[in-house]
Fold these 3 entries.
Entry 1:
Amino acid sequence: VQLVESGGGLVQPGGSLRLSCAASGFTFRNYVMSWHRQAPGKGREWVSSIFGDGRTNYADSVKGRFIISRDNAKNTVYLYMNSLKPEDTAIYYCKSSGDYWGQGTQVTVSS
């Protein structure tokens, strides 16, 4: 099993980013995929999940600003992040049910 995140970077407050997580080694469409993040000095927190059928859930802190989606044909899950705030600064991790994690991608929101 391998999960590889990409798309992080430095963005100004109010800006947008799209994170991607490419999955391999398992039947992607059967697994719940989620995004988590860990800010400096804080514990890892759940951000959003998407089921194989497309149902989604979001943490209150990102609801209305972030959108999770998946492409089962490409074995990829995305996180569209809009109206970014400095408090969104964190390492963002992709996770599959079965407790497989990616290596993380850094998102920094700063002017």
Entry 2:
Amino acid sequence: QVQLVQSGGGRVQPGGSLRLSCAASGFTFKNYYMTWHRQAPGKERELVASISTNGGQTNYADSVKGRFTISRDNAKNTVTLQMDSLKSEDTAVYYCNTKALGFDYWGQGTQVTVSS
């Protein structure tokens, strides 16, 4: 079955960095776009970044452009979100996602807290 298992995250001071990883299994990873989303308390889940099948095309929400970097390793079936220059407003639960085999799949979620 399709599984997306996240790791990383935690608590960091403003201006710091964190790295999120998502290990995929149960589908042909290299054939599908991957995305990262986040949901802050009291807010709707929002798309943060996306990456094409070969990693050649990436897109970012305006709020994270220039600070976050999405990447993938098709040999290891992983997608990563490098988050730099973090701000308090980046505090949220982060989810990796793919639309594979006709369904929407989500990781378990990872808390990222940016606070001094």
Entry 3:
Amino acid sequence: EVQLVESGGGLVQPGGSLRLSCTMSGDTISNYDMSWVRQRPGRGLDEWLGQIHRAHSTDSAKGRFIISRDNAKNTVYLQMNSLKIEDAAVYYCTNEPNGLGSRGPGTQVTVSP
């Protein structure tokens, strides 16, 4: 059974950066095109942020975000730059490129002065 665990969230000031990690167990992450989604407070639907092809090391995501992966570590990353207050959300990785795959518990990102 595939399990995903996101980490790296926390409190950051506007304009700051964070790198989120998502580590897979139970399978090899190189078998999957992965994606990141987020759920912002008060919004019921996930926002799809981007995907990374299994053969790529880096792919662009929405806006100021970049997705990368290290298959040797069974991990994908979401680099978030120039963070804004509206980027505050719970962030999830999924093992489908459309954001609808299995996901972990998520990691909370708070952006506040």
